[in-house]
Amino acid sequence: MARKETTAAASAAEPGRLKQIALTYKMTRRADSKIGLIIAAVGIVTFGVFLAIGFWLGHPIYLGILGFILAFLAMAIVFGRRAERAAFGQMEGQPGAAAAVLDKIGRGWTTTPAIAMNRSQDVVHRTVGKAGIVLVAEGNPNRLKALLAAEKKKMARIVSDVPVHDVIVGNGEGQVELKKLRTTLLKLPRVLQGPQVTATNDRLKAMGDLMSNMPLPKGPMPKGARIPRGGPKMR
């Protein structure tokens, strides 16, 4: 009975996965019109190479099967990377885009979006992991300096024993491109153990932040969105 229920659940989930893949392909194709040709070329070339090696070695069937499997894998990898690049391209420049990337950084990181914001929609997000505390800012670099300095000063009083890094998302000098944000954070040296990360998060939660009083939607905020009147005082 349990086996039948598991099979039924898997069968029900399959159309959902296929629909998600189809939607991702359509979204990617809008930004990358050659995605179909590129994926097909990768699959054909990979399969053709293994099949040719199979004929050369006298085992075309075995190498053909292996080539088919590896061709499918190569197509999936290429599709995933180009889809990710297309998604970053669509998010880039939108307020809150960095928070959407941080939300998917992976296990071991706890992200709190919009811990500081001004009326120009320059915003600072915070993520905590084994590398310490990372403040990720997006907006005007000149205005962000004041926001970052204020947050660093506040954290120095509460978590002075934890390293604090700051990153400004953008394409200018000294900034980190949105598509490279996750990689940049994962390359930071790990200086904290699991219990230290938990303790740091608890201390920061006790400190409170902007999001405690003003709920904001996850991911990129729509262009032209305004901070509601009567909310908490902006820094």
Can you describe this structure?
The chain is of the alpha+beta class and 235 residues long. The protein is built from seven helices and four strands. It has helices at 2-31, 35-57, 60-91, 97-102, 141-158, 181-186, 194-207, and strands spanning 110-117, 123-129, 132-138, 164-169. The chain has a four-stranded mixed sheet with strand order 1-2-3-4. A hairpin with a 2-residue loop joins strand 2 and strand 3. The protein is elongated and about 70 Å long. The protein starts with a helix and ends in a 28-residue tail after the last helix. Mean pLDDT is 78; it is low at 4-10, 210-216 and 227-235. InterPro entries: DUF4191. Keywords: Membrane, Transmembrane, Transmembrane helix. Pfam families: DUF4191.
Q: Biggest β-sheet, characterized?
A: 4 strands, mixed
Helix amount: 40-55%
Please give the count of helices.
7
- Tell me the fraction of residues in β-strands, as a range: 5-15%
In one word, what is the shape? elongated
Coarse structural class: alpha+beta
N- and C-termini, Cα separation? 59 Å
For the largest beta sheet, what order do the strands appear in spatially?
Answer: 1-2-3-4
Q: What is the arithmetic mean of pLDDT?
A: 78
User: What is the H/E order?
Assistant: HHHHEEEHEHH
Uncertain ranges: 4-10, 210-216, 227-235
Computed over alpha carbons, the radius of gyration is 23 Å
Tally of strands: 4
Q: What descriptive keywords fit this protein?
A:
235 residues, alpha+beta, four-stranded mixed beta sheet, 4 strands, 55% helix, 12% strand, elongated, transmembrane helix
